[in-house]
UniProtKB/TrEMBL annotation:
Organism of origin: Leucobacter albus
GO molecular function: imidazolonepropionase activity
Record flagged with keyword Iron: yes
Catalysed conversion reaction: 4-imidazolone-5-propanoate + H2O = N-formimidoyl-L-glutamate
Binding-site residues for Zn(2+), renumbered to this chain: H71, H73, H226, N311
Listed name of the protein: Imidazolonepropionase
Localization annotation: Cytoplasm
Major enzyme class: hydrolase
Coiled coil: none
Keyword Zinc: yes
Residues binding 4-imidazolone-5-propanoate, per UniProt: R80, Y138, H165, Q229, T316
Co-factor remark: Binds 1 zinc or iron ion per subunit.
Length: 412
């Protein structure tokens, strides 16, 4: 017999399902949610709530989907405090710092990498994250990238191959491109659901990025792009052209880039497409690198599908706090609270291809959709110690997440 749990007396419920509630976010007041096993079984007015084996009184507080963090780099060792201090003293971020973490990661044992990942995943959970992507990219040899993917698969909900992070120190760029599109990709492919490339000056240029995206697609793998982080460049246009799931960073976008992202979801320059490219903004990274904030307001206004992610990594964004990212997107990037909450939940799910039932997790299990509070969806929820999601931006810096359920199990 599958046990049921009723979360009752919810003051404000964000469903992200406009058939269930009003406004952006499909909000309901005085609501209840029934969980049956790993899934949501019923959502509606508290006055009509069905009976359940167990009942939790939310005492008028806000309930919403757990955060879906679609961009992290959590398999690493060491930190880069000195680099951060230098940056805060005026130095610019450069991709070359990645090699510092590559050296520390290669020198670490499996147990050290797993323990560090567990620490970071635990921090993220306590802050309301229930679904998390993480990338390889600090190994950059065949053996170290395979090891990173294996470690990631023990705890992440999606694993992305980022062998094309930088060309490792002392390696010939042409030989490395052959490796990353050949032997390394073949070795990692069974362990990952997508391939990513850092398309930027100091990392991979347009021709190299094209080759990586085309090789990945030929092997049936989804793609993502790190684009337009350090300057204007081809990353966004390449991601849209190749039908990548997302392009992430986006501090330096032209109006044409924004139009391409918006157009990727409908009648754009390439005609009607079934699925577009999500524009993923990384507010904590923009702040930590003192780079321009991604134009999230313009992207939403243009009709792009926007996700917010933490980009947790030791170089550019050493935080997994999605609450902080949501507050920053509201206070600094001009999104409304409802837009930011949607981008950090359903937006992330779309960027990961997890907004529909049947996505496969790294352990090979088919999973229900995430990012919504709707019958049939995975019961991934967070209860705030606040009456409304508005408090996430109204009370910046406060940890408001009080309880978290992942697949129906209370984890915080
Ligand atoms: O997403 N931009 C490339 N990769 C990471 C930074 C990695 C690092 O500096 O260690 C990012 O910001």
């Amino acid at each position: 017999m599958v046990r049921t749990l009723l979360i009752d007396n919810i003051g404000e419920l964000t469903t992200n399902d406009e058939t269930l509630g009003s406004g952006l976010g499909g909000r309901l007041a005085d609501a209840a949610v029934l969980i049956e096993g790993e899934r949501i079984a019923w959502v509606g007015p508290a006055a009509q709530a069905p009976a359940a084996d167990e009942r939790i009184d939310a005492e008028g507080r806000a309930l919403l989907p757990g955060w879906v963090d679609s961009h992290t780099h959590m398999v690493f060792a060491g930190d880069r405090t000195a680099e951060f201090e230098a940056r805060m003293a005026g130095e610019a971020y450069a991709a070359g710092g990645i090699n510092v973490t590559v050296n520390a990661t290669r020198a670490a044992s499996d147990a050290e990498l797993e323990a560090n990942l567990a620490r970071l995943v635990g921090e993220a959970r306590r802050d309301g994250t229930t679904t998390m992507e993480t990338k390889t990219g600090y190994g950059l040899t065949v053996a170290d990238e395979v090891r990173s993917a294996r470690v990631a698969a023990t705890q992440a909900d999606a694993v992305t191959f980022l062998g094309a992070h930088v060309v490792p120190a002392g390696v010939d760029p042409a030989a490395y491109l052959d490796l990353v599109t050949g032997k390394m990709l073949d070795a990692v492919a069974p362990l990952v659901s997508a391939v990513d490339v850092f398309c930027e000056s100091g990392a991979f240029d347009e021709a190299q990025t094209r080759r990586i995206l085309e090789t990945a697609a030929a092997k049936g793998l989804a793609t993502r792009v790190h684009g337009n982080q350090l300057g204007h460049g081809p990353g966004t246009q390449l991601a849209v052209e190749h039908g990548s799931l997302s392009v992430d960073h986006l501090g330096f976008l032209t109006d044409d880039d924004i139009a391409a992202l918006a157009g990727s979801w409908g009648e754009g320059s390439r005609g009607t497409v079934a699925r577009g490219t999500v524009a993923t903004v990384l507010p904590a990274c923009d702040l930590s690198t003192r780079m321009p904030l991604a134009p999230a307001r313009k992207l939403v206004d243009a009709g792009a599908v926007v996700a917010i992610a933490s980009n947790c990594n030791p170089g550019t964004s050493y935080t997994s706090s999605m609450g902080f990212c949501v507050a920053t997107a509201v206070l600094q990037m001009g999104l409304t609270v409802q837009e930011a909450v949607r981008a950090a939940t359903l937006g992330g799910a779309i960027a990961l291809g997890m907004h529909e039932d049947g996505w496969i997790d790294p352990r090979g299990a088919a999973q229900p959709r995430v990012g919504v509070v709707s019958p049939g969806a995975r019961a991934d929820l967070q209860l705030l110690n606040a009456p409304s999601v508005t408090h996430l931006a109204y009370r910046p810096g406060m940890r408001l997440t009080e309880a978290v359920w992942k697949a129906g199990t209370r984890v915080v």
